[in-house]
Design goal:
single chain; alpha+beta; six-stranded antiparallel beta sheet
């Protein structure tokens, strides 16, 4: 039954990828589906922007948490390579993320890196007020869902680049048309009249 729920959630995430090109809508659907599967009470996805990791979409986290950990240096992520589990019985005082989760009254959390062949793209974060809420048996499922989200992020990046390129080409075409129209008017004024 658990495997059936996982496959159904994965299907809904893939369906969202086909239904909309809006990244925020895709992330929202994905986070909600994974929250249902894992039983997480709070969730977020943070994406790399330069050397920062900025929370793009979240559910359940307070404004206070967002102020503390909604924007982190990439180096502050528990792991960029593999899934990391944590139990906040004694948070690491040097970790802004763990301290923010502790103040949020989170007892257990998991971060799932989003990686592509181009490198580290961000993390998924799931948190719960229950101790040890995320069993390690969920690792395969979280990895598979992270792979789907990574594909979604890459598609969104390609779509955004295509939109930006189209906008530049449209602007260039408008400039070309304005120059051509201006040249046509100039030629009318400088051409000898047919009576001459």
């Amino acid at each position: 039954e658990r495997r059936i729920r996982e496959l159904a959630a994965h299907g809904r995430i893939v369906d969202s990828m086909l239904r909309t090109l809006d990244l925020d809508e895709r992330l929202e659907i994905s986070l909600r589906e994974i929250m249902k599967l894992t039983g997480a009470e709070k969730a977020g996805v943070s994406l790399v922007e330069g050397d920062r990791l900025v929370m793009r979409k979240q559910f359940g986290f307070s404004r206070s948490y967002m102020a503390r950990a909604g924007d982190l240096a990439v180096e502050e992520v528990p792991s960029q390579q593999e899934i990391a589990w944590g139990w906040n019985d004694s948070p690491d005082p040097s970790s802004r993320l763990e301290m923010a989760l502790n103040k949020e009254r989170v007892k257990s959390w998991v971060t799932v890196p989003l990686r592509s062949e181009h490198g580290f793209l961000g993390i998924l974060l799931f948190a719960s007020a229950k101790s040890q809420a995320f069993p390690r048996e969920q690792m395969d499922m979280l990895s598979a869902l992270a792979n789907s989200l990574t594909l979604m992020l890459e598609q969104a990046s390609l779509y955004r680049k295509a939109q930006e390129r189209l906008a530049r080409l449209t602007t260039l075409r408008e400039i070309d048309q304005a120059i051509s129209a201006n040249l046509s008017i100039c030629l009318l004024y400088t051409s000898p009249s047919p009576r001459d």
